[in-house]
Design goal:
The complex is a heterodimer of chains A (393) and B (333).
Chain A: E1 2-5, E2 15-21, E3 28-29, E4 34-40, E5 43-48, E6 53-58, E7 64-67, E8 71-76, H1 117-126, H2 144-153, H3 174-191, E9 194-202, H4 204-215, H5 225-239, E10 245-248, E11 251-254, E12 260-262, E13 264-265, E14 271-272, E15 275-276, H6 284-300, E16 303-304, H7 305-309, E17 313-317, E18 336-340, E19 344-350, E20 353-367, H8 373-387
Parallel strand pairs in A: 5-16, 12-17, 17-18
Antiparallel strand pairs in A: 1-8, 2-4, 2-7, 3-6, 4-5, 6-8, 9-20, 10-11, 12-15, 13-14, 18-20, 19-20
Chain B: H1 3-6, E1 8-10, H2 11-25, E2 29-33, H3 49-53, E3 58-60, H4 65-77, E4 81-86, H5 89-92, H6 96-103, H7 106-109, E5 119-124, H8 139-142, E6 149-151, H9 156-168, E7 173-178, E8 185-187, E9 201-204, E10 209-213, H10 215-229, E11 235-239, E12 242-244, H11 248-258, E13 261-268, H12 273-284, E14 294-298, H13 307-313, H14 317-328
Parallel strand pairs in B: 2-3, 2-4, 4-5, 5-7, 6-7, 10-11, 10-13, 13-14
Antiparallel strand pairs in B: 1-8, 6-12, 9-11
Helix pairs in contact in B: 2-9, 4-6, 10-14, 11-12
Chain lengths: 393, 333
């Protein structure tokens, strides 16, 4: 018996709305099947299941907003055994969702939990569920500071059904996404001691190779320079594994593979960085296809849960209409972000002569709690070196 | 001592100047009490005034608080402006009937036909090793009585100027002078020549915790705030100044700012002024509180005579700082 839970689609997500079930009780599912669609601040996400079995119970009905970790459905073995209270893999500090009813009283607290009057009032104002907070005050009481810390750490959300009178189009809501970006970036700048490095890379060889490669391809198969930049970044990270992973609970956790979050700007504003798994191992044409697929699905609001959960690093390229360079902000809990400015023809000194060359400024923002500038510089150097031999990418 | 030379004056001198000013400004004003004339006052506040103003206006009285407070009430009813000194608050209990049953009630019972413009100065508090019949802080009892205004000057400015405001009040006013303050020196702002007798005052601004105090407790609260400041805790110190009627608005404004409260009262906890303040905060400022209320009060024993025991029985800056620290940083000691 396994529980299918509301996933955390990024460190900044607190709650999601179940908008569609793609299975019903009795359906057989296997690992990797998309079985539900969840609407988040990042848009509608197709959620995959990681267990095999038969859906025994749909716990949360559609159009219900529930906190991360809430059991959405139960997946049983062959016989669809009756639901047993299985120990969850991690403690989930939220109450199970209830069927839509009258709005719950604001800021309910655990029975017997101590909450100061000021904290209780503030939690009501902010819509913070006191039951999710750990108190740091006298006798373990939840204090004003605890509530305000929770409000900063997570955008306010309540485990309550969506009001019916507020129709929202499936897909992403720019205002909600802005809130999610604000929360994640503010947390990053507050918690992560960034260091920044940049390096100018001559792309002459890479662009020449790309031109000859593309000449032999039909238009839909042609590659963009971004694919080379991403592949070179992924390969360089293989040499510098301390820059690929996450920093959680005071410790660095190396990524299990180089799953590069590819930053995609959305029409109407907003940004997502879904993962391209094992980017260092994919041939360039496959990488390019994956990037195209992600862009298309990101913009139509159909990303998958695994793509949002798993990035171990982020790569961003400003493209033709960007700027010379980017000093990027790390997406927590990742520990590095690699950025590329626009590729521009600029004067460059080659063997004592000034020549016009296509150059790109590669930059790195990395978490100083995990790595130092020397390592970061080695990463940028490696990217530059790899891009000089594009045929090997 | 020479006030002009140092730029500061003692609390004792501030009290003396206030009385002298009142006698000079108002021919209806006079002072009476035990040993205020020839002896110059038990705490030497009235030294020299007999020579300057004569026996009609600086009157030594028999050792009978009931008699001379009653005489003061009668004089006030007859149109004079008496200043009555009671040597210590413990002795004032002999005059409790006069103060509570007459001074506080006559204006009310006469339908406002009789005013009692009486001022009683009373020494109060512990710390002078004079044991359990001379050291208590009973001002909270008087703060219980409608019809009285009760003042507690804790700084030289209030000692210097509260008396004039009290004499101008048509109703009886009690001024409690803490015995440990008489030797305290402080600067007088030359631009100030009057104070109100209605409002509490923030003596030190802070954001983490409010220390609410009066009298000598204020001085100890300020010392505690200094200790806390070294630890990065910003304590706000509220000087009550007026014990009746309480300036609840100033207290609540401070609580709304800091959300944590330590009430300092040399009086005993049970049925005390500190209890009254705490309940007012709970009644009117409940939703601003981010921590339980705390009180640092006198131990509930008759005041010990031995120095180390008396010190232990009184609120001390370290006790106040510890209470505040426990609210601001629970879990650390």
């Amino acid at each position: 018996m396994a529980d299918f839970r509301m996933p955390a689609l990024g460190a900044d997500m607190e709650a999601g709305t179940l908008v569609e079930w793609l299975v019903k009780p009795g359906d057989r599912v296997k690992r990797g099947d998309v079985i539900a669609v969840v609407e988040t601040q990042k848009g509608a996400i197709e959620v995959e299941v990681f267990d095999e079995g038969v859906v025994s119970d749909i716990v949360v009905p559609v159009k219900t907003k529930v906190p991360v970790g809430t059991v959405l459905a139960r997946i049983g073995g062959e016989a669809a055994a009756p639901a047993k209270a299985a120990m969850p893999p991690t403690p989930v500090p939220v109450a199970p969702p209830r069927p839509p009813a009258a709005p719950p009283p604001p800021a309910p607290a655990r029975l017997g939990a101590k909450v100061t009057p000021a904290a209780r009032r503030r939690a009501t104002e902010l819509g913070i569920d006191l039951a999710t907070l750990a108190g740091t005050g006298i006798d373990g009481s939840v204090t004003l500071a605890d509530v305000e810390a929770a409000a900063i750490a997570r955008p306010p959300a309540k485990a309550a059904p969506l009001p019916a009178e507020k129709p929202r189009r499936l897909g992403f809501d720019p205002a909600e996404m802005r809130k999610a970006i604000a929360a994640a970036m503010a947390r990053s700048k507050r918690e992560i001691p960034h260091y920044y490095l940049s390096d100018t890379i001559d792309l002459g060889a890479a662009l020449a190779w790309l031109e000859s490669h593309n000449a032999a391809q039909p238009v839909p198969q042609r590659m963009l320079p971004a694919a080379l930049l991403l592949k070179a970044s992924a390969l360089a990270l293989r040499e510098m594994p301390q820059l690929n992973g996450t920093y959680v609970d005071g410790a660095f956790h190396p990524g299990g593979g180089i799953h590069a979050g590819w930053a995609i700007s959305l029409r109407g504003g907003g940004l997502v960085a879904p993962a391209i798994r094992d980017a260092d191992q994919r041939p360039l044409p496959e990488l390019m296809a994956a990037m195209r697929d992600l862009v298309q699905r990101a913009r139509s609001g159909r990303l998958r849960s695994s793509e949002l959960e798993s990035p171990t690093v982020t790569v961003t390229s400003l493209g033709d209409r960007g700027a010379d360079a980017i000093a990027a902000i790390i997406y927590p809990p990742q520990v590095a972000i690699i950025g590329f400015g626009s590729i521009r023809v600029r004067p460059w000194v080659v063997e004592g002569r000034i020549e016009p060359r296509s150059l790109v400024t590669a930059s790195l923002a990395a978490d100083h709690r995990v790595s130092d500038g020397h390592l970061g510089a080695l990463l940028l150097n490696a990217i530059g070196r790899l891009l000089q031999e594009p045929a090997k990418l | 001592m020479s006030p002009a030379a140092t730029g500061t004056i003692t609390y004792r001198e501030a009290c003396r100047q206030a009385i002298r000013d009142a006698l000079l400004a108002d021919p209806q004003a006079f002072l009476m009490g035990e040993d205020v004339g020839r002896y110059g006052g038990c705490y030497a506040v009235t030294k020299g005034l007999l020579d300057e103003f004569g026996e009609d206006r600086i009157r030594d009285t028999p050792l009978s608080e009931s008699a001379f407070v009653g005489a003061g009430i009668g004089a006030a009813l007859a149109g004079l402006h008496p200043i009555v000194e009671i040597m210590t608050v413990n002795f004032s209990l002999l005059a409790l009937d006069q103060i509570v049953n007459n001074a506080a009630t006559i204006p009310h019972m006469s339908g406002g036909q009789f005013a009692v413009p009486l001022v009683i100065r009373i020494a109060t508090g512990g710390g002078r090793r004079v044991a359990a019949q001379h050291s208590h802080s009973l001002e909270g009892w008087y703060a219980h009585i409608p019809g009285l205004r009760v003042l507690a000057p804790a700084v030289v400015e209030d000692a210097r100027y509260m008396l004039a405001a009290a004499l101008a009040d048509p109703n009886p006013v009690l001024i409690f002078e803490h015995v440990m303050l008489y030797n305290m020196e402080g600067a007088l702002d030359p631009s100030v020549n009057a104070v109100d007798i209605a409002r509490a005052k923030i003596r030190r601004a802070g954001s983490n915790v409010s220390l609410i105090a009066y009298g000598n407790g204020l001085i100890k609260a300020l010392a505690a705030a200094e200790l806390l400041s070294a630890e990065g805790i910003a304590a706000e110190v509220v000087d009550l100044r007026v014990l009746r009627p309480l300036d609840t608005a100033t207290i609540l404004a401070s609580v709304a700012k800091t959300r944590r409260v330590v009430i300092v009262d040399e009086g005993w906890k049970s049925g005390s002024l500190s209890a009254e303040i705490g309940v007012r905060i709970a009644e009117e400022g409940f939703f601003d509180l981010d921590a339980p209320l705390r009180r640092v009060c006198g131990r509930e024993v008759p005041m010990p005579y031995a120095a180390h025991l008396e010190d232990a029985a009184l609120p001390q800056p370290a006790d106040i700082a510890a209470a505040a620290r426990g609210l601001v940083r629970p879990g650390r000691t």
